[in-house]
Amino acid sequence: MDREAYPDTTNNDAASYDVNLGAFSAAGANGAVATQALGGAGANVPAVASPGNGAAISPTLLTPIFTIQGAGHRSPLVGNSVTTSGIVTAVDSNGFYLQDPTGDGDIATSDALFVFTGSAPGVAVGDAVRVAGTVSEFTPGGAATGNLSTTQISGNPSLSVLSSGNALPTAVLLGNGDRVVPNQTIDDDAFAAFEPTSDGIDFFESLEGMRVTVPNALVIAPTNGFGEIFTVADGGANATGISDRGTLNISPTDFNPEKIQIDEDEGVFDFNLPQVDVGATLGDVTGVVSYSFGNFEVIPTQDFTATVVNSSLSPDVTTLQGSSTQLTVATYNVLNLETNDGDGDADVANGRFAAIAQQIVTNLKAPDIIGLQEIQDNSGSVNDGVTSAAATLQALVDAIAAAGGPTYSFIDNSFITDGASGGQPGGNIRTAFLYNDDRVDLQPSSVQTIGGQAAGEAFAGGRLPLWPHLSSTAKPSPWSTTTSPPRAAALRSSVWSKTSLLAKKTPASTAAWMNAKLNPQRFKALSAAWGPRPR
To answer: Total domain count for the chain?
Structure first.
């Protein structure tokens, strides 16, 4: 029903009010006919007027967030203009997370999404907001990365704050008592069916943008330089593959979808992310589900540092010793190591070379051969066309010698081409080797990379492998003949990454002692053949 309202006789600013919609329109809108005051004078004398009349206000149809999301990895409404509403649960520097306060009760459809405004959105957590904009799918880094997309409202959306200070939607527990994260399968049907109860990649998609709580989060990898902590829920009660050291190891049939990445976003909530080690517990971590660098993640919206219990884990020290008939071999992920302290980090000044060298000498007992992962080129992340990592490797060799270890020789990965190996732009990340030439000799012609695999084979989607042949300087042992022993299993540090998931890559069998660093930006492959052999 429409009615005309008049505040006084001096301002005929009538407005029509639609009872069903609960909204006003300006006088004369929708064909309404304003009426003149029939009596009264002065600002404090009420006017007497006849009702206005006109057409009903045109309704604004709301599309619920869960309808926009749909049951799948892409919205069924991409490209459509929609108006929706919800409660603001987190605010970033370029948009905000909006969640339906009640949802539709369907676990396959997320009740939240991100509203991209491009700048500070001018809303606050707890605001009830109506948004009008265009449904879009944003792919971090572009489609060529193989990343999944996230559903957004974009296109310079218009915002209306309806109320403030509202209670936030209840956070979903990612664990016992609510939604248990799948612990084996990431995707088993190339996305043919959307299966959020069994497929990890679908599980997290069904929670995209929503408030969640990781109960009793158990740390399975140390805080890294990107402000990320990898955890499992419920103290690991439903996790498979947890090692005796507390890491979460993969197997050819289990890529550990239960791994949950906690990622600080200072734009959303600025706090001191704790530096923790494997085995620490964080307590309950509450935040919103986001996606970045090929991995779903929980961005904290509350400080959990008061509930952190640190780990008592200390670095292991190997008992393996080389001999005249045995070589010692290790693999070490040096996490984007480089010598250029002017590129935004300071590996030299911060003592990373010295710390890594000390671990190699003290904890690994200076192995005869070391397979290195994540060596960057000489200029680090400066994108200047440099591809050689000789300076980086030499600096590490010098640091090991200074720590009391041998003076290693190194094998750079000369097959790396500029900008083709992934990782931090400009860094030309690679695998490489150190070897003690008092113990082994390099056969220079053996240095090669591995290529030409059929789709789905071990090294597809990984770092460019490096494969040298190293022969022992010791005299032949009873099992050492002029024929090399079988090539060792590939030394791998592999993790769940969206790129590999989308391409359905399955790694080859891994050595039992593999270093399974759970870090989604880095899907690595390293291979070598070695063994005692007559000189």
So the answer is: 3
148 shares a domain with 24: no
Residue range of the domain that includes 22: 1-59
Asked if residue 337 lies in contact with residue 396, where contact means CB atoms within 8 angstroms, the answer is yes
Residue 282 covered by a domain: no
d(CA 387, CA 414): 8
Give Dmax over CA atoms of the chain in angstroms: 117
> Cα–Cα distance between 131 and 164 in angstroms, integer?
15
Strand order in the sheet with 172-173: 172-173, 211-214, 285-292, 295-300, 260-263, 228-232, 218-221
Burial class (CB in 10 A: 0-12, 13-18, 19+), 212: buried
Is residue 38 located within the same domain as residue 114? Answer: no
* Same domain, yes or no: 444 and 346: yes
Quote the DSSP letter at residue 473. Answer: S
Structure tokens at 42: 């002065």
Is the predicted pLDDT of residue 532 greater than 50, yes or no? Answer: no
| Surface-to-core class of residue 296, CB atoms within 10 Å of its CB (0-12 exposed, 13-18 middle, 19+ buried) | buried
Mention every residue, 6+ apart, whose C-beta is less than 8 A from residue 61.
83
Closest CA to 34 of 48, 19, 54: 54
DSSP string, 146-160: TPPPEEEEEEEEEEE
Same domain, 442 and 370: yes
The per-residue pLDDT for range 357-379, each reduced to its tens digit, is 999 999 999 999 999 999 999 99
pLDDT of residue 472: 52
- Does 50 reside within a domain? yes
Rounded to two decimals, the pTM is: 0.67
Query: Model confidence over 59-80: pLDDT tens digits?
Result: 779 999 999 999 999 999 999 9
CA dihedral 235, 240, 246, 251 (to 10 degrees): -160
Q: Using alpha carbons only, give the angle 291, 425, 381 rounded to the nearest 5 degrees.
A: 125
